[in-house]
Structure formats: C-alpha cells, structure tokens
UniProtKB/TrEMBL annotation:
This is Energy-coupling factor transporter ATP-binding protein EcfA2. Its main location: membrane. The lineage of its organism: Bacteria, Bacillati, Bacillota, Bacilli, Lactobacillales. PANTHER family: ENERGY-COUPLING FACTOR TRANSPORTER ATP-BINDING PROTEIN ECFA2, HEAVY METAL TRANSPORTER. It is a peripheral membrane protein. Gene3D superfamilies: P-loop containing nucleotide triphosphate hydrolases (3.40.50.300). Belongs to the ABC transporter superfamily. Energy-coupling factor EcfA family. It is an enzyme of class 7 (translocase). SUPFAM superfamilies: P-loop containing nucleoside triphosphate hydrolases. ATP-binding (A) component of a common energy-coupling factor (ECF) ABC-transporter complex. Its EC number is 7.-.-.-. The keyword Transcription does not apply.
Length: 281
C-alpha cells in the first residue's frame, strides 16, 4: 500500500487578490516502510505538501492515495479519523500543543482518542516516555515544568504512542542541541526500521544524507526531483543551481570513502550491490 500523489495542485485563497499556488502538479510514489525527506528552499511548498498527507488541507485538483484512503478536492472532514490514526503529522514546535496536567496523561491522550482503553493507553504512554529518553518520574510532573527539549520529547512521544503507520515530521529537531537532534533522529530511524513509513521535512542536509533513502526536492510548489540522497548530493552544480546545501557530515563522506576502498567488484551487478551496501550501512 504505497503513497501515491497524482497531479496534485493546491491554491491558497483562490480567486482573491491573495491567490497563491502552494503546490503545482505534484506526482510521486513513496514505498511502504521507507524513510523519506522533503527538502527545498523556504516557501518552496514543503509544509503545504506535508499537510496533504493526512488531509489537513485537500488538493485543489489531483488525487492522493494513502493508507487505504483516497483524497480528492471533494473529500470532506467527515470520516477522516481513521486516516489520521494511520497518518500522523507533527508540526514544528509541537510542544506548544501540550495541554494535560501531567506528562503521562498528555502522552496517553492520543492513544485514548484513537480507541485504546485507559490501561493500554497508559502502558503505551509509559513505554514511549522511556523510548524518547525521559525518566519514569517525569510522567507525574506537569509538562509545563519541563525544559523546551523535554517538552518536545513528550509531544513526540504523544504521537508515537498510538504508532501511526505513517509518521510525518516537519523540522522535528529544530532548535535542539546536536546531541538531542541525534537522539531524535535515531528514534525516527528505529521507528522506520520497525516497518513504519517516515516522512521528514528538513533544512538539515546531514539528516537527509544520514537517514533518508528517498528525497523529494521542492521548488516554487513543484517537485523538481525525486532520488536517493547519493544521487541528489553527488551533483554539486545541480545543487548550486537550485541553491541547495551539501551535507557537511563526515558520516556521509566516510560512507562514500568506504565505498571507494571497498574490494574490487567483479561485475557491474556486484559493483551496484557493493555501492548500495556501503551507502546503506
Ligand atoms: N495560509 C497561507 N496563505 C497563503 N499563502 C500561503 C499560506 N501558507 C503558505 N503560503 C505560501 O505558499 C508557499 C509555500 O509555503 P510553504 O509553507 O509550504 O513553504 P515551505 O517550503 O514549507 O517553507 P519553510 O521552509 O519556510 O517552512 C509560500 O509562497 C507561502 O508564502
């Protein structure tokens, strides 16, 4: 059950002086269980695209197939609960949406909303509190007494606690220190390896290089390229032309270097396999 966008366009404030094309004839497919990144300049349409994944906004034209649901311009808000249980969207600075009296109740809110009984919701909340790296005793505290980084973890645990099949993240590590960013990205990577689909909007090219298998590049509302990170980042001229940065990470450079020193392959098929193994590993 892949995710499929077919000729999706979206216009903000149509037929008014403020009319603005947010998406322009976007088509692509994403594989189940893949780690995808959406990159592009500010204002290129990344967040607009992201909000289509759980029908928070619906296409002005075109069609989306996702998690067994078809989204078209005619789709209404009715019957979207099932879609939103499967496809979850985490906005930038999700900690702004915490509201319960205790951390554990805040994390359990999502699971309860999607039909877990009280006991199961609390068990899931305790499990995810630990998974995001917070000690058990924090569960009893008010989320508003925590640091910004801890609040971010609570908010993300609240989404992961009902285990959506498709996790959409808009700059989830923005403003976190490098260690916290790494832990957060490792958490999403593990979630993907367990079989879920992850879609990440980011300006951080190191995260793209280190974690994504598939990259969508947005520019002026159009998707101008879809490829593996190595294919996106190997062409410096193309990157410069589109004002995109290269990853700085030594990890990605090391992966490429390992590949150069890998044992001499015997056939083209071996060579391709070798490259893939080295870049994946
Ligand atoms: N609510 C809105 N009303 C009108 N235009 C909007 C609205 N939201 C976004 N836009 C416009 O649509 C275009 C795409 O915006 P979008 O937020 O999707 O870009 P983005 O790539 O996510 O940017 P950033 O990296 O800054 O978050 C921009 O030109 C933006 O100004």
């Amino acid at each position: 059950m892949s995710i499929k966008f077919e000729h999706v366009s979206y216009i903000y404030s149509p037929e008014t002086p403020l009319e603005k094309k947010g998406l322009d004839n976007v088509s692509f497919k994403l594989q189940d269980g893949s780690f995808n990144a959406i990159i592009g300049h500010t204002g290129s349409g990344k967040s607009t695209l992201m909000q289509h994944f759980n029908a928070l906004i619906r296409p002005t034209s075109g069609k989306i197939e996702i998690a067994g649901t078809t989204i078209t311009p005619e789709t209404t808000n009715k019957n979207l609960k099932e879609l939103r249980r499967h496809v979850s969207l985490v906005f930038q600075f999700p900690e702004a949406q915490l509201f319960e009296n205790t951390v554990i109740d805040d994390i359990a809110f999502g699971p309860k909303n999607f039909g877990y009984d009280n006991e199961k919701a609390l068990a899931s909340a305790r499990f995810w509190l630990k998974k995001v790296g917070l000690p058990e005793e924090i569960g009893k505290r008010s989320p508003f007494e925590l640091s910004g980084g801890q609040m971010r973890r609570v908010a993300i645990a609240g989404v992961m606690a009902y285990e959506p099949d498709i996790l959409c993240l808009d700059e989830p590590a923005a403003g976190l220190d490098p260690e916290a960013r790494k832990q957060m990205m490792a958490l999403f990577s593990e979630y993907q390896k367990e079989g879920h689909t992850v879609i990440l909007v980011t300006h951080n090219m190191d995260d793209v290089a280190n974690y994504a298998e598939n990259v969508l590049v947005m520019e002026h509302g159009k998707m101008i390229k879809q490829a593996a990170p190595r294919d996106i980042f190997k062409d410096r001229n193309w990157l410069q032309e589109h004002h995109l940065e290269e990853p700085k990470s030594s990890m990605f450079a090391a992966k490429l270097q390992n590949y150069q020193f890998a044992k001499l392959p015997l056939t083209i098929a071996d060579l391709v396999k070798d490259i893939e193994t080295n870049l994946k590993g």
